[in-house]
């Protein structure tokens, strides 16, 4: 099944054994799963992939689960890649595509990461899991924990979208609403986890959510017949999806599935919470805590991401950039995407459309470039954000 060999710290490169329970490296760096890609290359062919499951588990040899019986899946992954001709024609992009993660189980890309993380918890015998979340990760963890028969403990901001709160309650999680941001929720999980016996599944504080999310990179390569696009727009709160895709591209090149070409990786944030954009513009390797963070895109309201240095590495190594959009811009762009193409996107997806407009206008991207926007969630989970535009 898996070809995983060990875990490696993304900061100091210290190795840890696979098949054991780990959170962060002792230096505080996030751990990454490493694989015997030469072994995978000898025993696995990209032409065989369509014969596998119609889910992200078609890439099982480069996912960490070693026991098929431990896989907790609700059918996540293999989301549509849609050529948005009308939107592209209006914006001046002839080869514009949307990878619509909103059709995943639980309505967002978070299903990928939590399917992988909860599957590894099942394999490792973990019974109680806890997460701080701005919304969609909590809903996904609650659902997969329910499917696995685990106890789930959720800490989310009190003003989280109602859909996320109800979803967690309905799937049996124990929910604590916090007066504060996701960073405050994270502090509460960290303070209580040892006494309560919880395994913490915070963003990048365990090694496996990134492995599920990296399958977005494998899929876009497969769907474009192993030729990567010229640019990828990705909304970055924690930024794990971008980190994961960048990891996937390196793995695929080692497997011999793709060449050296890489897309320009474009990190998109909200003007009201743009620590990565600010760090990129200032030429810094890491971001600083973004005070008074506020945006209707709850998934982007992350004032300091633990993996910010990895996001910034991907952006710079790819000759990409980082762009912020205002709340008004992202909601307007989300409505345009919906009315042009029938894709009702989360505000985070709308932010990518708004960022695209700016980069086409500046000349950073050209009309003929093949461009992929990742819509990370369904607009149906953000009705409060859209409702002021459509009063009854």
Q: Could you walk me through the main structural features you see in this protein, from its secondary elements to its overall organization?
A:
The chain is of the alpha/beta class and about 400 residues long. It has a domain of about 210 residues: Rossmann fold. The protein contains 14 helices and 13 strands. The strands form three sheets. The protein has a six-stranded mixed β-sheet, with helices on both faces. Strand 10, helix 9 and strand 11 form a beta-alpha-beta unit. Helix 3 packs parallel to helix 4. The longest helix has 16 residues. It is globular, with a radius of gyration of 19 Å. The N and C termini lie far apart (about 55 Å).
Largest sheet: 6 strands, mixed
Helix content: 25-40%
Number of helices: 14
Q: How many strands in all?
A: 13
């Amino acid at each position: 099944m898996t070809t995983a060999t060990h875990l490696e710290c993304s900061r100091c490169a210290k190795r840890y054994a696979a098949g054991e329970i780990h959170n962060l490296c002792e230096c505080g760096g996030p751990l990454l799963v490493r694989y015997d890609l030469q072994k995978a290359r000898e025993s696995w062919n990209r032409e065989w992939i369509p014969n596998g499951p119609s889910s992200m588990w078609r890439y099982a040899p480069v996912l960490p689960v070693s026991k098929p019986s431990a896989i907790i899946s609700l059918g996540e992954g293999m989301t549509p890649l849609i050529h948005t001709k009308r939107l592209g024609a209006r914006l001046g992009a002839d080869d514009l595509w949307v990878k619509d993660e909103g059709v995943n189980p639980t309505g967002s890309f978070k299903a990928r990461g939590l399917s992988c993380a909860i599957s590894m918890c099942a394999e490792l015998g973990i019974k109680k899991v806890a997460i701080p979340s701005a919304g969609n990760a909590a809903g996904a963890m609650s659902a997969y924990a329910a499917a696995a028969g685990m106890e789930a403990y959720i800490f989310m901001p009190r003003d989280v979208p109602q859909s996320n709160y109800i979803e967690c309650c309905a799937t049996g999680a124990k929910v604590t609403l916090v007066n504060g941001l996701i960073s405050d929720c994270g502090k509460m999980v960290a303070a209580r986890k040892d006494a309560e016996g919880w395994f913490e599944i915070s963003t990048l504080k365990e090694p496996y959510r990134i492995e599920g999310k990296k399958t977005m990179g494998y899929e876009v390569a497969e769907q474009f017949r192993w030729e990567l696009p010229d640019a990828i727009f990705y909304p970055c709160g924690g930024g794990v999806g971008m980190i994961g895709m960048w990891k996937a591209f390196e793995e695929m090149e080692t497997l011999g599935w793709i060449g050296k070409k890489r897309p320009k990786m474009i990190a998109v944030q909200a003007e009201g919470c743009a620590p990565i954009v600010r760090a990129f513009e200032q030429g810094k390797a890491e971001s600083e805590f973004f005070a008074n963070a506020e945006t209707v895109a709850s998934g982007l309201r992350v004032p300091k991401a633990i993996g910010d240095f990895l996001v910034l590495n991907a952006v710079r190594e790819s000759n990409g950039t980082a762009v912020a959009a205002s709340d008004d811009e992202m909601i307007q762009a989300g409505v345009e995407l919906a009315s042009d193409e029938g894709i009702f996107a989360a505000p985070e997806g709308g932010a990518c459309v708004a960022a695209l407009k700016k980069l086409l206008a500046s000349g950073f991207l050209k009309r003929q470039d093949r461009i992929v926007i990742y819509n990370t969630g369904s607009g149906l989970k953000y009705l409060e954000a859209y409702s002021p535009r459509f009063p009854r």
